[in-house]
## 1
Amino acid sequence: MAVTVLVPTVLQQRARGRKSLTSGGSTLDELLDQLARDYADLVAVIRKDGALCRFVNVYRNGEDVRQQEGLRTVLSDGDEIQILPAVAGG
């Protein structure tokens, strides 16, 4: 199964400059486990202590995974995961 992970510009350094990654897993948590093997710094921004980090939004096919099953969100072949860290300023 192939799932595409879109990496925003602000996190691309943690993904060795890549704009997108392809990995697999039947759930978001499994996908992150797979990605952590090669991109541990990236996954550390998304998941901490078994939960999604508070200031990072993750979308599966345009829908917020927090409105689904969070890290247990089931993934299918061809899904697209988008990572959007919160941005604040003043």
## 2
Amino acid sequence: MEATMTQAHQVVEFLADVEKRFEQFCVTFNTEQSIEKNAYDCPIGPVRSAIFRGDVFEKASAVYCDLNIDTPPVLAEKMGWTGMKMQGLVLEIGIHPRNPRIPKGYIELRANVGDSVILAGGTDIFPYFYNDDDRIFFANKIRDLCEKHTVDYEELRNIRADFFKSNFRKCDVGYHAGIYSFHLDEKKFPFFMEMADAFFTAYGELVTKRNVEPYSESDRETQLKLHGQWAEWIMVEDEGTRFGLVKGIPPEALLGAILPPVATF
């Protein structure tokens, strides 16, 4: 149990560091920006959010949750946990660029802490206009990360592809160049940490490359339409969002941070 508590503490410190890196990432690209930070005392634990609005990132947000929740029976059975409660640590970052030639960026890092620590989460980019060069570039960066840590890239990519899709619109949610895992052993904590490095590095290069490209009003209309479809998926199909709202996380904390800044339906 002592090792588990040490690991949980390390996860908390790591997620706090990623929040700081996210803020610096926004400052690096936005020459003009506003920042809105809020903290919420929710029934299942504290939640905080940070939203940046600027000339490059129309809206970039981070939501951090430290939750005390019931242990899902399926997880308890799978992991052999005996406790009825667990700690859920979640950091979700979404970056909506102003230029639709830049893909939307996303990373989610989470840890379930019970009798042991189970890591989860993933990352991907979301195109407004399909660009095979961007897809391959991001996929190669994540594949290299997986190979370095002896993690099966295709297995985790397929998990993402199976989950992040719209059952109503019959389309993908994201490029599926990235990865996702629901159960990652705590021994893979170094891989978990370096996922953040890979995201900021790869996405930063794409922002630098694509932000100089011109776009039209028609391009902007396409972007807003896709924002609408993304918002639909979050509010209608994403189980994690629904769970948070049902358990008492205020909509302004959860939806206010992760929904796109502007959308058409």
## 3
Amino acid sequence: MLTGGTTLVGLLGDPVSHSLSPLMQNAAFAARGLDWAYVPLRVEPERLEAAVAGLVALSFAGGNVTTPHKTAVLAFCDELDESAERAGSVNTLVVRDGRVHGSTTDGLAVVQAVDAEGMHVLVLGAGGAAQAVATALAEAGAARLVVAARDGERAHALAARLRSVFPDREISAADRWPPDAEDAGIVLNATPVVDEPLVSLAREQTAVDLAYREDGAATAFVEAARGAGCATVIDGLDVLVGQGAASFERWTGIEAPADVMRRSLRA
């Protein structure tokens, strides 16, 4: 039950009605005995600056940032940690002493789940999540990274940004959509698409999906990966738990109950 002493955390995005983060984070707060609540807040792009200021004004402890605000929100943070600055993307806000601290846990959730060292990675998508995860995979030692998106200009822009940060890596944009995934060791879907597999997958590959269905059913990408017998398949709920646990720890300063968070989603 919400009281005058309840600490609030918000989810800033548009849309937010489909998000499972409130279910997961509120289960985590309850498991740790915290009088905290996580609330979805639909924020239109032109109102993002006011929404971030509102978190401070309303004494929120922080928030998560989702589509389409992960890159735009950087301009409204007072400080960025190193991961957010390098990625140019923020998904976690911490409000402390009236200042907004921005960080990203999207990439962390993926590199904790896969070994990118020396791998050829294909990233599908060029938005804020793709930017954060591609940066983290390059930091984790990916030898070659290809960005592919329906919007070719955005794919080339992201590839150019990554090359400026990692000049010693082989980074490029795919010249067509959908791209050929045959040579990739890791294929990562960072688009919101859940009804199309997008690419053909193979047995020896690792498939990672950031997208998920609201009912928890497998996305078309995950179904295709399992059908192809991919060596490793990480679905969007696995990634959500990873990034959500890291966000939880940034807000509260205590260890996240990852098992509770996972069960709340799988149920």
